[in-house]
Write a structure and sequence with these properties.
Elements: H1 4-14, E1 25-28, H2 41-45, E2 52-56, E3 59-64, E4 71-76, E5 82-86, E6 96-101, E7 106-110, E8 117-122, H3 130-133, H4 146-152, H5 160-164, H6 175-185, H7 198-220, H8 223-228, E9 258-262, E10 265-269
Antiparallel strand pairs: 1-6, 2-3, 3-4, 4-8, 5-7, 6-7, 9-10
Helix pairs in contact: 1-7, 4-7, 6-7
The chain binds a DNA duplex through helix 6.
DNA sequence: CGTTACCCCTGGAGGC
DNA sequence: TGCCTCCAGGGGTAAC
């Protein structure tokens, strides 16, 4: 479920509760996620304090670097991961793999498909961690714009959609927001990135930014619910224009939305509105 | 470089 | 009711 907006909404949902709190311990029920959770996490975390929670791409970064033996907790929610805050003693349900224990609350990670990742980085310089070092630009950063995209795609010929989803180039854009951003920009997902003008790249960068920001804002309206409930509220708050709508009328021209397969993923677009 | 296939996992939907 | 196949919002690797 999580692309950048969902991760950011989760982060904001935790901000009122966790920073400044001491970690009492950790319970790892299932060490085998996509990568193995480092052993001894409980001993390593106990006594550390979470000073801040940041985000890099789809990674949530818990800054526990201030104390002796401190470092950073890196969390990727994969395809099906979600976080919730529950009262201490709340029984774990199926797929509740990890608890971070605080004195008055528990941060619980649920991830049915176990494509998530939970890693520990010793020391303060988290950006050097291998999972983060090769990541591309943040699409909500000030220096991300059409000119940047245009320059970054010179010398490449791949279709634009798989490129948008390549986190070595731009982070955080998954299958849904790639499709929605391209629809808003009027660009075909099949178009080679070398055949898009600077003007159209500007429009695309703007579409990416506004799509992500609108989604965060929509999820943000129910941040508490997202983190505190056991439902998926916070996702899908914005209806999609083309994603998942194969055969349905395009919201702009009413011709049927088409589905194709690119790089092993479903792509939805309007062949009339997107060129 | 770009594309494809396959891997990690579970669960839901739909066909029979 | 079961059993089968396909699909899913992520990402890594290897092969061609």
């Amino acid at each position: 479920m999580p692309e950048l907006p969902e991760v950011e909404v989760s982060r904001r949902g935790l901000l009122p509760y966790l920073p400044g709190k001491a970690i009492v311990g950790a319970i790892v029920r299932t060490p085998r996620l996509r990568l193995e959770i480092p052993s001894g996490l409980d001993a390593r975390l106990a006594g550390l304090r979470i000073d801040a929670i940041s985000r890099r791409g789809k990674y949530l970064l818990f800054d526990c670097a201030s104390g002796r033996g401190g470092g950073w907790l890196l969390l990727h929610l994969g395809m099906s991961g979600s976080l919730r805050l529950v009262p201490p003693g709340t029984p774990a349900q199926k797929h509740d793999h990890v608890d971070l224990l605080f004195d008055t609350t528990v941060l619980r990670l649920r991830d049915p498909r176990r494509f998530g990742v939970l890693l520990w980085h010793e020391g303060a310089d988290v950006e050097t961690h291998p999972a983060l070092a090769a990541l591309g630009i943040e699409p909500l950063a000030d220096n991300f714009d059409g000119d940047w995209l245009y320059a970054a795609t010179r010398g490449r010929r791949a279709p634009v959609k798989p490129l948008l989803m390549d986190h070595r180039l731009v982070v955080g854009i998954g299958n849904i927001y790639a499709a929605e951003s391209l629809f808003r920009a009027g660009i075909s997902p099949l178009r080679g990135c070398h055949r898009i003008s600077p003007d159209r790249y500007r429009r695309l960068a703007e579409s990416i930014r506004t799509t992500l920001e609108a989604s965060i804002a929509a999820g943000g309206s129910s941040v508490r619910d997202y983190v505190h409930s056991d439902g998926g509220a916070g996702c899908f708050q914005l209806s999609c224009a083309v994603y998942g709508r194969q055969g349905e009328p395009c919201p702009r021209c009413a011709r049927p939305v088409r589905a194709v397969r690119q790089a092993g993923r479903s792509t939805f677009y309007c062949p009339a509105c997107q060129r």
